[in-house]
Specification:
By secondary structure, this protein is of the alpha/beta class. The protein has two domains: about 5-25 and about 100-200, Rossmann fold (3-Layer(aba) Sandwich), CATH 3.40.50.1000; about 30-100, Orthogonal Bundle (DNA polymerase, domain 1), CATH 1.10.150.240. The protein has nine helices and eight strands. The strands form two sheets. It has a six-stranded parallel beta sheet with strand order 1-8-7-2-5-6, with helices on both faces. It is globular, with a radius of gyration of 16 Å.
């Protein structure tokens, strides 16, 4: 049975480490907050900060759909695609101003070449590459799984399962580092232990607080 931890655990008992990206190994909260505020308001979608915080870790498409539903705004497929493009454009234009590594950088470097490591994120693969290169973490990972590589994003476990597959480790021997509720659910769904980095490592993502 997968375990959920709120304290640091002995990582040497695992055969593979899988990390969420935004809010876990990458501090990008303000970047995504500003991108969402600009994009949603342009399309007359207004939701609470608490609601957006609750969607941390959810892929862009699902975030738009859920935010529109919450605001009783009906969007066409073209409008959704437009919003996805607008949000991505903002992030691409401004990520170098905001993105930096979190304190988990120390653990990543500590276990480099000792245990295989993967990133499993609700962001696109290209965005993950950009962010990880910006923070200097890209070279430490054996695999990077973005939302475009799976059919079902978080809270389903597909992202983490593909990460485990890419590093050739049985899911039951992996532990996931996560900061968001949907990510915890995804790890448990994948049959993996998961640690809440907010509690265990004092990692806090300044996203719609």
């Amino acid at each position: 049975m997968p375990q959920f931890f709120k304290q640091a655990v002995d990582l040497d008992q695992y055969q593979g480490l899988i990390f969420d990206m935004d809010g876990t190994i990458v501090d990008s909260g303000q970047l995504h907050e500003k991108a969402w505020l600009e994009t949603l308001e342009r399309h007359n979608i207004f939701v609470s900060r608490e609601f957006m915080r609750g969607l941390a870790g959810v892929p862009t498409l699902q975030t738009i759909e859920l935010a529109a539903k919450q605001s009783n705004v009906k969007l066409s497929e073209n409008e959704i695609n437009l919003m996805m493009g607008e949000k991505e454009t903002f992030v691409h234009a401004h990520f170098s101003e905001f993105v930096k590594a979190t304190a988990l950088e120390k653990i990543i470097k500590q276990y480099y070449k000792k245990l295989p490591m993967a990133v499993g994120t609700g962001a696109s693969t290209q965005e993950a590459h950009n962010f990880l290169k910006q923070t200097g973490l890209f070279e430490y990972f054996d695999a990077i799984v973005g939302c475009d590589q799976v059919v079902n994003g978080k809270p389903k476990g597909d992202t983490f399962l593909l990460g485990a597959q890419k590093i050739n480790v049985d899911p039951k021997h992996c532990i996931v580092f996560e900061d968001a509720e949907f990510g915890f659910m995804a790890a448990i769904d994948a049959g993996m232990d998961v640690v809440d980095v907010k509690e265990a490592y004092n990692i806090h993502n300044d996203y719609f607080l």
